[in-house]
Write a structure and sequence with these properties.
alpha/beta; D-Maltodextrin-Binding Protein, domain 2; 2 domains; five-stranded mixed sheet; 11 helices
Length: 308
């Protein structure tokens, strides 16, 4: 009876959402407005805490070890899976079994390849020619080995035969700062994190990685259209609770996200950012994660991160 009453009262104190990357990145652009509206819906304080380090591993590990009561949550990207496959020695948690999926925001338009504005190339073919004309090729910034920004960069390097060198950062916000300053040449990033810089002409966008073009980026081709039929990389954000969090609590959290994103102002904001507006429910998101694990495992084998 006591446990049921506790669950029925959820939430009765502050909910903390851990973002395992530095402040100001594309996850923050979604997590902060979403958290603010979830707070209204739930009637409890919702705070966003950036806990960066090790490509997202440190923040994720803290949530895996938290009490399974719904008051400590994780919002992160597909690096939640990628870190286990590309950084297995550092990851002490199971991304599938160690967490309870709450919801997913799956962007079928994928992520985008952006370049510093003075790169003399507007297509992947021209970019490859330019990279090969330089003694040391080009550099791309990424948010850590195992992050989707790293995996996409390595897939481009492998599939196009493009001379690229990866440079790790604590998050894509820092990559974009250096991209604008001309300190790095390229990066793969979620649309939400780069949209403002693209619109202001501070960086250029060359391609997206989804199955179809992103509606908010007029005229930008997919990697498939650019000559790479197997280059499909979905971008997604997820919200997770620790393993064994009661199903009733997970359902309450999911319902709060769904109600928040049903509000016209939130749908408009997320659409402008190029983010998904329809949250995937817990069980469906869990099945998606299993498929994504298989996909990223294949990439890890192709790129030599794990034995074939």
């Amino acid at each position: 009876m006591g446990a049921r009453n506790a669950e029925a009262a959820f939430p009765d104190r502050t909910i903390k959402i851990i973002v395992p990357f530095a402040p100001g990145g594309p996850i923050d652009a979604i997590a902060r407005p979403l958290g603010a509206v979830m707070q209204e819906v739930l009637g409890a304080t919702v705070v966003i805490e950036n806990r960066s380090g090790a490509g997202g591993i440190i923040g994720s590990e803290s949530v895996a070890a938290a009490a399974p009561d719904g008051y400590t949550l994780l919002m992160t990207t597909g690096s939640h899976i990628g870190n286990k496959l590309f950084n297995s020695a550092q990851v002490r948690y199971d991304p599938l079994q160690g967490f309870a999926p709450v919801m997913g925001l799956i962007e079928t338009n994928g992520i985008i390849l952006v370049a510093r504005k003075d790169i003399p190339a507007d297509t992947i073919s021209a970019l490859n020619d330019f990279a090969k004309s330089r003694p040391n090729g080009l550099t791309y910034g990424h948010a850590g080995i195992g992050n989707i920004s790293y995996i996409a960069g390595e897939l481009l390097k492998a599939q196009a035969g493009m001379p690229l060198s990866g440079i790790p950062y604590r998050g894509t916000a820092a990559v974009l700062t250096d991209l604008i300053a001309g300190q790095v040449d390229l990066c793969f990033v979620g649309i939400s994190g780069a949209r403002g810089y693209i619109d202001s002409g501070q960086i250029k966008v060359l391609a997206s990685t989804g199955t179809e073009r992103a509606p908010v980026l007029t005229g930008v081709p997919t990697m498939k259209e650019s000559g790479f039929p197997d280059f499909v990389v979905f971008g997604y954000l997820g919200l997770w609770a620790p393993r064994d969090t009661p199903k009733e609590v997970v359902a309450r959290l999911y319902d709060s996200v769904k109600e928040a994103l049903a509000r016209p102002n939130m749908r408009e904001l997320f659409t402008t950012l190029g983010a998904a507006t329809d949250p995937t429910p817990p069980e469906e998101f869990a099945r998606f994660l299993e498929r994504d694990f298989a996909t990223q495992q294949r990439w890890a084998r192709e790129l030599g991160a794990i034995p074939k």
